[in-house]
Amino acid sequence: MTTTFTIAVTGQSLIKHDIRHVDKPGFRGVREVLGRADLPFTNFESTILGSHGGWPLKGGVFGCSHPVVLDTLQDLGFRALSLSNNHAFDLGPSGILSTLEEVDRRGFLHAGIGRNHTAAGRAAKGAFAGRKVALVAMDGGPGPDFMYAADSINGRPERPGVNRLKLTKVVDVDDEAFGQLRRVRDKVGYTIMDLRNDSQPDDAPDFDSETEISIARAIFRRSGRFGRHVKIDTGDIARHTAAITAAAEQGHLVIAYLHHHHWAPDWYQVPDWVGAVAKSCIDAGAAMFVSHGAPVLQPVEIYRGRPIFYSLGNFIFHVRSEKSPWLAREVWESVIGLCTFGKGGELAGISFHPVVIGGSESATNDILEQRLAPELASDADADRILGRFRDYSATFGTRIDIANGVGLLRL
To answer: Which long-range CB contacts under 8 A does 19-22 form with residues at least 24 apart?
Structure first.
C-alpha cells in the first residue's frame, strides 16, 4: 500500500460532445492536474442513448449522450463516476440499461443507478493504486416517483432507475395561514383518496396530520414563521448510511455522493438539510462527501477531519445558448480538488486548481456551444475564483491559502 492516496474531484460533467480534439494549453493543464490523482472522479450528468434505445421523458430540459462521451471522460483520466442525477432517467429505463452497459464496458467504478432498487443502492467497490475504494451515490430530486429504481414485489416487475434519497418540500406557515389552509382543504373536500390519486404511481406523501396539511402533494407545516424546509426520509438516509458503514468497515475509502436541485434562492447559500445529510454520511464512515446540483461552486467544509464539497458546480457544461440563466460567469467557473489521504484514511491535504469552461475568453462569449472544454485558470481569473471560494469556505471555518494560482487547505 502506498503512503498516500489522491482523489481528484471536479464539477459535474454534463457532456454531449467528444472534446478530445481540443488542443489548448489550458485544457492540457486540466489533463495534467487530473493525471496527478490516483482516482479522478466526476458526476456523469446525462444518460446514454445506446443499444436499449429509449424515449424522451422530459420537455425542453432534456439530455442524452452517445457512448463516445464516456471515451472522452476516460481519456481525460476519470475512472469513477456517479450516475445519480436529474438527467439519468431522461430516456427512461432503457437509458438506465444503456448507461450501465456502456460504463461497465469501459470498466468505470460507478454507482447511483441500477436495474432495480437493490442494485441502485449498492456501494460500488474497487481497488486503485493499492487502495480499496467504495462509492455510494444518491439523488434527492425533485423528480417524478417513476424515475427511481424499484424492486419486484407482489407481481409487479422491477424498474431500472435512480438511487433515491427521498426529500419532501415543506412550506412553513404561521397559525393564521395554517387555519386558512385547513378551511380551504375542508371546504373543497380534499381527502386521502385525492392525495393517493395525486401521488400515482406511489402512495400519498407521509405527513403529520396534527401539524401538517397536504394538498396536491404540497405539505404545509404549522410554524411560528414563514419559510421553506426539506424533510429527509429517515428510511432512505438509514439505507444509504448503512451501505457507507458496511463498506468502511471492510476497509474501503468511501466517497458519499449526492445530487439535488433543492437549491436555496441564493445559489451560493448552502441549505441546512444538505449539511445534515453530509455529516450523517461522514459519521457513518465516509472519507468525503461530494455534491452537485446548484450550478455554481459552493464552499468546502472540513468536518471531523473529512471534506464536504457542498457543490463543485460545473466541469463540462454542454448546454444551449438560449438557456439564458447559464450566462452568469460563475456558472462556468469551478475548481479541481486534489484530495490526499494518508495510510489510515485520514485527510492529509487538498489543493484547489481553478478552471474556466471555455477559457478566459468565454466571459465575453454568449455562444455557449463554443464553451466546450474546461481550462486551467490563471492570473486574474484564478485569483477571482479562488478568492471567492476561499471567502465562502471561511464562513464554514475552512482556511484556504492562495499561492501561485492554487488554493491550499490549511488543516
So the answer is: 19/72, 19/316, 19/372, 19/373, 20/71, 20/72, 20/75, 22/372, 22/373
Distance CA 144, CA 131 (A): 37
In the DSSP assignment, the letter for residue 231 is E
Beta strands in 328-405, from DSSP E residues, in sequence order: 333-341, 347-357, 374-376, 399-403
How confident is the model over 17-30, as pLDDT tens digits? 999 999 999 999 99
Once rounded to an integer, what is the mean pLDDT over residues 311-327?
89
Check residue 24 and give its pLDDT: 96
pLDDT tens by residue, 26-46: 999 999 999 999 999 999 999
Tell me the C-alpha distance between 238 and 244, whole Å.
10
Contacts with 326 (C-beta within 8 Å, 6 or more apart), sequence order? 295, 317, 319, 368
Rounded CA gap, 219 and 224, in Å? Answer: 16
Cβ(387)–Cβ(407) under 8 Å? no
* CA separation for the pair 273, 147 (Å, rounded): 23
pLDDT digits (tens, 9 = 90+) for 266-292: 888 999 999 999 999 999 999 999 999
pLDDT in tens, 111-169: 999 999 999 999 999 999 999 999 999 999 999 899 999 999 999 999 999 999 999 88
Amino acid, single-letter form, for residue 59: G
Give the single-character DSSP code of 382: H
The three cell numbers locating residue 291: 455534491
| CB neighbourhood size of 263 (10 A) | 18
274: part of which helix (H) or strand (E)? helix 272-283
Which set of grid coordinates corresponds to residue 369? 456551444
Cβ within 8 Å of residue 5, ≥6 positions away: 38, 39, 128, 129, 130, 131, 253, 340, 341
The contacts of residue 270 (CB under 8 Å, 6+ apart) are 264, 298, 299, 310, 311
Report the distance separating Cα 233 and Cα 214, nearest Å: 16
Q: What is the pTM of this model?
A: 0.93
Report, as an integer, the average pLDDT of 196-206.
55
What are the tens digits of pLDDT across the range 50-62? 999 999 998 778 8
In terms of C-beta density within 10 A (0-12 exposed, 13-18 middle, 19 or more buried), how is residue 116 classed? middle
Q: How many residues does the chain have?
A: 411
For residue 64, give the C-alpha cell: 442524452
